[in-house]
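Would you mind writing out the residues of a protein together with its fold in token form for me to study?
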Amino acid sequence: MTGPDPNNPFPLPHHNNLVFLKNIIRNPNIEVGDYTYYHDMENPHNFEKNVLYHFDFIGDKLRIGKFCAIASGAKFIMNGGNHETRPVSTYPFEIFANGWERADDGADHYPYKGDTVVGNDVWIGYEAVIMPGVKIGSGAIVATKAVVTKDVPDYAIVAGNPAQVVKMRFPESEIAQLLQIAWWNWSVEKITRNLAFISSADVSRLADCQ
């Protein structure tokens, strides 16, 4: 056995609301790793509709690693949704032209927080919201309806609005070991051989896998 085919958009033929994301993404500014899946209550092709304010002229990217699990309704707010907050008004007069484009003369540039990056083996819960430029570490869990406004450490569990770390999944020493092991970069054959250890909580045994 070599595991499921990562190039199969619908890995479970009886479950057409779950897809391997990289096979349906069309936006070149969204990058997704192998085996990362999205489940949607209605249609998994809704994923790109939930990547909001993602304008080509801004150029920011959404990068998602391997083996992530993304629940229905999860949303990613990109840099195009930012407004200036320092001027008296946050209203974007200049986008309507007809003389209002002059509002941009000498104005501060819109805030830009860079790419949004999700590591490997991340679980993003139902209707969670990820704000622009956030970095979510590998092994992290984002709780249902959490609003993530700042970076999430590797193997942290975050919840709430704004999301806060409520627990670390492993001790610091084991997190360092897990990041060094980086099982998500193993061959699919090695992953298949060692599923029992990847699915256990015994980090030391995982480190000894061949």
User: Anything to note?
Assistant: The longest strand covers residues 164-168. The domain at 18-169 is CATH 2.160.10.10 (UDP N-Acetylglucosamine Acyltransferase; domain 1). The chain has a mean pLDDT of 91.
